[in-house]
Amino acid sequence: MAFLPKDLSVLAYANGFTLWHYTTPDLHTQVRATGYFNAAGHMLRVGDMLLANTDTDGAPAAGLLVVASNAAGIVDLSDLTPVGATDTD
């Protein structure tokens, strides 16, 4: 699939920083790939964080991504840092 703007939402904004949420059936490896968020490049700033729910129609993964760079129309995110990936109970 591809980036869908309707699935990107602002959770909080303060002091030039935005916390986003993104949900998608795409795998987290696709979402964090350079260029996936190019269509939202005009909104995303370096240092912004995205809480992501990925692979929502398969083996869901949740985590945190950080906008690593956004230059010349190319957006690059950090690797997904998993959140709640392990449940030992």
3D structure, described in words:
It is globular, with a radius of gyration of 13 Å. The protein is 4% helix and 42% strand. The chain has one domain (5-81). Strands 1, 2, 3, 4, 5 and 6 form a 6-stranded mixed beta sheet that branches. It contains 1 helix and 6 strands, in the order ββαββββ. The protein starts with 7 loop residues before the first strand and ends in a 7-residue tail after the last strand. The longest helix has 4 residues, at 28-31. The protein is mainly beta.
- Alpha-carbon distance between the two ends: 34 Å
Mean of the pLDDT scores?
93
Our count of domains comes out at: 1
User: What fraction of the residues are assigned to beta strands by DSSP?
Assistant: 35-45%
The percentage helix is under 10%
* Total beta-strand segments: 6
Alpha-beta content class = mainly beta
List the helices and strands and how they pair.
Layout: E1 8-14, E2 17-23, H1 28-31, E3 49-54, E4 61-71, E5 74-77, E6 81-82
Parallel strand pairs: 2-3
Antiparallel strand pairs: 1-2, 3-4, 4-5, 4-6
Features of this protein?
89 residues; globular; six-stranded mixed beta sheet; 1 helix; 6 strands; 42% strand; mainly beta; single chain; 4% helix
